[in-house]
Design brief:
Elements (H helix, E strand, L loop, with lengths): L6 H14 L9 E6 L2 E7 L9 E5 L2 E8 L17 E8 L10 E5 L2 E7 L14 H4 L7
Antiparallel strand pairs: 1-2, 2-7, 3-4, 4-5, 6-7
Length: 142
């Protein structure tokens, strides 16, 4: 029986192992969209402990932190371990048009959703146009 070998698959596995063992925060993929009068940010955090997720706003900086730990069992010999553990960190600059007092968040099925409402002063509005003639007083002399 002939077996073929892919030399690049072993290189990919080795590179993946080296990259996963790097120190520092892990990648947290996010999507961001506007829906009416709010922005919605969704972040993938599969396996993160909900109690470890921390979201804070300091001025115009929104910071999301989370932690994912690897399940450990006594006497286990890992054959493959591709799901990264460690800390996750993302920071976003939010504009002055966000109502930071009304930001909400939820975590469901490994996805963190953060809703950032647009502040009243940043919402589009119509400006009334007055008439200069209506403001003038006319006097008629006889």
């Amino acid at each position: 029986m002939a077996m073929s070998s892919d030399p690049f698959s072993e290189f990919d596995r080795l590179a993946s192992t080296l990259l996963q063992s790097r120190p520092g925060p892990r990648v947290m993929p996010v999507d961001l969209y506007r829906e009416g009068d709010r922005y919605v940010l969704t972040a993938d955090l599969p396996g993160a402990d909900p109690g470890s997720i921390d979201i804070d706003v300091d001025g115009q900086l929104l910071t999301i932190r989370a932690q994912r730990t690897t399940a450990s069992a006594e006497g286990v010999k890992w054959l493959s371990q591709e799901r990264p553990a460690g800390s996750y960190l993302r920071q976003f600059s939010v504009g002055e048009g966000i109502d930071s007092e009304k930001i909400t968040a939820s975590y469901d099925n490994g996805v963190l959703s953060v809703v950032l409402p647009v502040s009243e002063r940043a919402k589009p509005r119509k400006i009334a146009i007055g008439s200069a003639k209506a403001d003038e007083q006319h006097t008629i002399s006889a």
